[in-house]
Amino acid sequence: MAKVALLYPPVTDPTSGYHSLSYIDSYARAQGHPAADLVDVNIEAFHYSYSPAGLAWLDQELAAPRDYHTYGNYTLNPEVVAAHMLRVGDPDPQRVRDAVATLQDPERFYDYGQYQEAVDGIIAWQNCMSLTGFPGQFREGFHLEAPPMLGVGSAKALTDHALLSRLNRPYQSYYETVLLPRLARGGYDMIGLNITYQWQLPFALWLARLVRERLPGVFLVAGGTEVSDVFKSAAERSVVFQVFDSLDAIVVGEGETAYVELLEALDAGRLPTMHPNIRLHPRYGAVRALPMLHYEKLSTVPTPDFSRLPWDQYLSPEPFVYYSPSRGCYWNKCTFCDYGLNTDGPTSPWRQDTVDTMIRDVTELSKFAKFIYFSVDVLAPATILRFAEQVVDRGLDFRWGAEIRLEKYWSDERCALLKRSGCTAISVGFESANQRILDLIDKGTRPDRVHQTITAMSKAGIGVQMMGFTGFPTETREEAMDSIDFLLEHRDLWTFGGLGDFVLTPGAIVAKQPERFGITNIRRPPGGDIAPALMYDEPISEAAKDDVTEAKRRLGAGHYDRPWLGAVDTPHTFFYHDRYGTAVRRHLERDREMSPEDEDTPFVVNGRFIPQPDPAVLSRYCDLYAVPRSAFPAGRLAFRRDDGPIFLLPKSTKLYLNLFSEPTTLAEARARAWVLATTDIARTWQTLIRLRLIRRHTTARVGGCFTAPIPLRPAT
């Protein structure tokens, strides 16, 4: 029978294993096929980067002269490159080893000071790694900040070998010395790549090219959400296999039965032409027409087996698994939505498992992982309630979270039942707090119901993560302010979240019926022949944009974005919700406040001063990192915090920061600061702590037992 390796490419969340590969592998095994080898390339490549071999390669790379501006037929703006490079310090492999150990430790992980130091260390490490590719390509450590020609969804750029080679350069040594030799030794008949997120695409394309060169006879296939998005977003169908030229086939849409068809075809020595979700490369010639598309029957999908993922490598203290008991959305009306391979609706057709099946699955999954996240578009309220009742009746002990609709269904009593069943946090797309905008979205809710639901959830001790956006077509400044004011007025009822910006996607009802929403001149961005987002003209929301963006700053940015604590629906956010409940936000905010205990707490400087940047470079920095230009007054000293952000500080600040060049208590620093003749030293300390220019010194950074990198797990 066919021997298969399934790869999960960079760059994506390193805190937990994703569920796609486990789902299709479990389905195939239930049909009698042997298990595939699952290789999480994303997490393996990260750990390799600070191994002895990875460090030797990095030293060689950073010592070599290079041109950061010209890549084949493309040129990057020198000011943009210089702005990204402001955030890059010196590589510190010991710190990244300590950081990994902290994030995997069940005690230190929940000490927020140690947590911050660990995340800062990993972000700083990834900033250094970006110098081997495109400076600034790793935002928050594991989110791709693609150069403009790649970011717009250009097939020309995504097939430019010089660009892809440079972007993948941080991982090239791992590819060449670990991954490709392993695949060559494996004797595989088929290698599959799961591409879930847009920022994985250029890495997956380069990996496919390398595998094709090394193993020309292997059947190479890719599937996942991003493959489907390329398929449905392509300006012309011919563009799809220009992008996926190294592949033999792609899977468009859901993958369980398509994967089995691929295995059966390989076993029979034929081409996989029987399944409508499989699209063969045109080099195989025309095949018979098939219906479009196939949607899986959830009753045939077995309990996913997550045990074969490398859980000892993820940057979390315990497993966190994703579980999908429904597909599509039961509401399926929101005019902005465009998710999955929809036909005439915003999402895929709605299907949901029975409560009995859900109980069977979580009973099994909870033996392996304490945390289960319902990775679905939305769960029906009555189903959630019946599920919670059975969890309580059976005495099952696990923690869970999900995305739900804000229905009036959620009374105090029902929310209390959810909490008893293990629900730690939920996510809600409230979208807007203005009724006219909600009606245009066809959200089917009212602001007073939103308030009622989040009050009941918070009262029950369930963390509420709020998701919304401004800039919906024809939204005025005043209407956007309704959403901002709503979140500010009810800040005690939600933990994390905020307001993003509206993005128009091709399959959304807004794009299909533009006259209804007052938009004109819908177009792709220049060169964006597979662009997932469209440009358009709409004067009302555009005129309000700058004022609204400035007003949204009042909501306060979280300490970190994905994949870290503080971002919506990340594993780390759920872990902290479980530990600290609905007080989690206040717990984190205390870390930025000075307390009486800090008089005897050692603090240490959290960064270093750097040469003064050129004003044009600072201007670019503001554009790239959404920093107000008012934050960079002239005549100040430039300071880079350990995780990369730049601050322009009054010259006197250097004297205060020098007091903390070694771990020093505030009392000791106060005693030495009298010569600085300040009238309000406490205010100075508070500013330094709030901006994290100094941090509480922890004892987690030690040598010895934390110096060895986690070994790469061989394929089994």
Which terms summarize this structure?
single chain, 716 residues, alpha/beta, six-stranded mixed beta sheet, six-stranded parallel beta sheet, 28 helices, 26 strands, globular, disordered C terminus, BchE-like
Protein topology:
Blueprint: E1 4-8, H1 20-30, E2 37-40, H2 41-49, H3 52-63, E3 70-71, E4 74-75, H4 78-85, H5 93-103, H6 112-129, E5 138-139, E6 143-144, H7 148-151, H8 155-158, H9 161-167, H10 169-186, E7 190-194, H11 201-214, E8 219-223, H12 225-233, H13 237-243, E9 249-251, H14 256-268, E10 278-280, E11 320-323, E12 326-327, E13 351-352, H15 355-365, E14 371-374, H16 381-394, E15 399-404, H17 412-420, E16 423-431, H18 435-441, H19 447-459, E17 463-470, H20 477-489, E18 496-501, H21 509-512, E19 520-523, E20 535-537, H22 539-552, H23 571-580, H24 584-590, E21 602-605, E22 607-610, H25 615-625, E23 637-641, E24 646-649, H26 651-658, E25 664-665, H27 666-672, H28 681-690, E26 694-696
Parallel strand pairs: 1-2, 1-7, 7-8, 8-9, 11-14, 14-15, 15-16, 16-17, 17-18
Antiparallel strand pairs: 3-4, 5-6, 9-10, 12-13, 19-20, 21-25, 21-26, 22-23, 23-24
Task: Summarize the structure in words.
This protein is an alpha/beta fold. The protein is built from 28 helices and 26 strands. The strands form eight sheets. It has a six-stranded mixed beta sheet, with helices on both faces. Helix 1 (20-30) crosses helix 14 (256-268) and helix 9 (161-167) packs across helix 11 (201-214). The model is unreliable at 700-716 (pLDDT under 50).
Short précis:
This is B12-binding domain-containing radical SAM protein. The chain has 28 helices and 26 strands.
